[in-house]
Design goal:
This protein has a single domain (2-278), classed as monomeric porin ompg (Porin). It is built from 2 helices and 13 strands, in the order H-E-E-E-E-E-H-E-E-E-E-E-E-E-E. It has helices at 2-11, 128-137, and strands spanning 33-42, 54-67, 70-82, 92-108, 111-124, 150-160, 169-180, 185-190, 195-205, 210-219, 224-233, 243-258, 262-278. It has a 12-stranded antiparallel barrel with strand order 1-2-3-4-5-6-7-9-10-11-12-13. A hairpin with an 8-residue loop joins strand 6 and strand 7. The two termini are 37 Å apart. The relative contact order is 0.18.
Length: 279
């Protein structure tokens, strides 16, 4: 148990948005990188709590090559879902990993467009069957969870408005088409949630800290809206704080599978993030 707790703690070192912050382009390869880690625990109890009680993830994004206003980026994300304590041990019931490539063109410092593709693979964790068996013996709810792989091609437009109050940032992520496998088996198909959005407002900013409200949504069947407030501290030489405390949540009580975010459980969660930017 101690070993698992230590592993989970290590995952917290390094967070947040799917969409990139402002990048000062330096010509060349591997000139910029952002790594993150996050750990959160759900604050409320519902039918899915025995299967999804906490969430840990780590990942990053870096440039493969940049020249002028154009850059090619690679991103990756690993997520672990944990159940409530069972038999006095930490249990993992789910996992997901995602990666993608994006070709981004910065029209200005406040506006960019990009195109690319994303992959997300989700799996049951090693303790999922044991949790299901325990809940079945108690005549409790047994969820139906989709673990199929997802692949989408996308286009994205993002812009910031630094002259307005609260310095809003908005991104529209268009993902109209999906495909099976890594060889486009079956050709392109319509993706059921063709639009994802990310909206951020900086309500307060100090010398090396700020308070941000963020809303992430996927629109379409099975879509969701995640809203979060976070306090960012110790920014130093990067825009976002290196240590973040957040409270967020998704309305409803289900489990939502996302090409962009992995798994979200309905309800409120409290957690910490540590993002590190290197350039």
């Amino acid at each position: 148990m101690r070993t698992k707790v230590c592993i989970l703690a290590l995952m917290m070192f390094c967070a947040s948005s799917l969409y990139a912050q402002e990048i000062d382009a330096v010509p060349g390869a591997f000139t910029w990188a952002r790594f993150y880690g996050q750990f959160s625990r759900y604050a409320n109890h519902n039918d899915f709590s025995p299967y999804a009680n906490w969430d840990a993830r780590t990942g990053g994004k870096f440039d493969i090559f940049q020249k002028g206003k154009n850059g090619v980026f690679f991103n990756f994300d690993f997520q672990v879902i944990g159940a409530e304590m069972l038999h006095n041990k930490v249990n993992t019931t789910g996992a997901s990993y995602g990666f993608g490539f994006a070709d981004r063109y910065s029209i200005s410092r406040e506006l960019y467009v990009s195109v690319g593709f994303d992959h997300r693979s989700t799996h049951f964790g090693k303790d999922f069957d044991a949790v299901v068996l325990t809940q079945r013996l108690l005549n409790q709810f047994i969820p139906v969870v989709d673990t199929s792989d997802m692949n989408t091609v996308f286009g994205e437009v993002g812009f910031s408005l630094p002259s307005l109050p609260f310095k809003p940032f908005v991104a529209f992520h268009f993902q109209p088409a999906s495909f099976e496998g890594m060889r486009f088996e079956g050709g392109l198909k319509y993706y059921e949630r063709p639009l994802a959005t990310d909206v951020q407002f900086t309500l307060w900013r100090g010398e090396e800290s700020r308070f941000v409200i963020e809303n992430q949504s996927e629109i379409g069947p099975g879509g969701f809206t995640y809203t979060e407030g976070r306090m960012e501290l110790f920014a130093r030489n990067q825009d976002e704080g290196r240590f973040q405390l957040f409270v967020g949540g998704v309305p409803g009580g289900g489990i939502y599978q996302s090409i962009n975010y992995g798994w979200y459980r309905g309800g409120a969660q409290i957690g910490i993030r540590v993002p590190i930017v290197a350039n």
